[in-house]
């Protein structure tokens, strides 16, 4: 006679409850492991931003933090976006993944640009012209006077602009709280 059949009805129910609880915990652990394996860490600049507007500060001294996304992309640096001039494609708070290169692949390509003389950086559609770089916004909103809220920006070669690189992807980082980080093994506890 199998051991289970030797139990009283009460002990049989307790055994079933215990087994169901163990199975539930096992599935939760498998889900955590699967989720952890699906998260890709990205290095994002912490004291930098790309303006989707009138310009944000940018320097070559880059400190980073780690943000997470569930897609794998070949990139060099992630930089947060501030502003709404590149909506509807790019939104405030998203991370732009940049692949370093000194010129766009084609006119109108979305790139990160550093206006070295002014200390501003932008995410814009870039066209290389004879006298400099033309930066254009995707957002065509108008103000109350009928003027474009985000007019084109011209950076002349005399101002020493440089293209940081092309935007290869943009995403909203997956938020992971510390309790979940601990379960995933991403948080070091002393």
Automatic annotation (TrEMBL):
<feature type="domain" description="Peptidase S24/S26A/S26B/S26C">
    <location>
        <begin position="50"/>
        <end position="168"/>
    </location>
</feature>
<dbReference type="Pfam" id="PF00717">
    <property type="entry name" value="Peptidase_S24"/>
</dbReference>
<keyword id="KW-0614">Plasmid</keyword>
<dbReference type="GO" id="GO:0003677">
    <property type="term" value="F:DNA binding"/>
</dbReference>
<keyword id="KW-0804">Transcription</keyword>
<protein>
    <submittedName>
        <fullName>Transcriptional regulator</fullName>
    </submittedName>
</protein>
<dbReference type="InterPro" id="IPR015927">
    <property type="entry name" value="Peptidase_S24_S26A/B/C"/>
</dbReference>
<keyword id="KW-0238">DNA-binding</keyword>
<keyword id="KW-0805">Transcription regulation</keyword>
<dbReference type="InterPro" id="IPR036286">
    <property type="entry name" value="LexA/Signal_pep-like_sf"/>
</dbReference>
């Amino acid at each position: 006679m199998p051991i289970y059949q030797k139990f009283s009805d009460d002990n049989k129910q307790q055994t079933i409850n215990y087994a169901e609880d163990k199975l539930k915990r096992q599935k939760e652990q498998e889900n955590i492991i699967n989720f952890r394996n699906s998260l890709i860490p990205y290095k994002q600049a912490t004291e930098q931003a790309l303006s989707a507007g009138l310009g944000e500060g940018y320097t070559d001294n880059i400190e980073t933090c780690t943000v997470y996304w569930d897609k794998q992309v070949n990139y060099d640096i992630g930089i947060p976006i501030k502003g709404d001039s590149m909506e509807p494609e790019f939104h405030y708070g998203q991370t732009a993944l940049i692949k370093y290169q000194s010129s766009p692949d084609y006119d109108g390509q979305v790139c990160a640009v550093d206006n070295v003389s002014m200390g501003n950086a932008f995410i814009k559609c870039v066209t290389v012209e004879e006298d400099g770089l033309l930066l254009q916004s995707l957002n065509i909103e108008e103000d109350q006077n009928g003027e474009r809220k985000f007019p084109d920006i011209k950076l002349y070669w005399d101002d020493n602009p440089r293209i940081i690189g092309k935007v290869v992807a943009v995403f909203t980082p997956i938020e992971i709280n510390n309790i979940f980080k601990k379960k995933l093994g991403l948080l070091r506890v002393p």
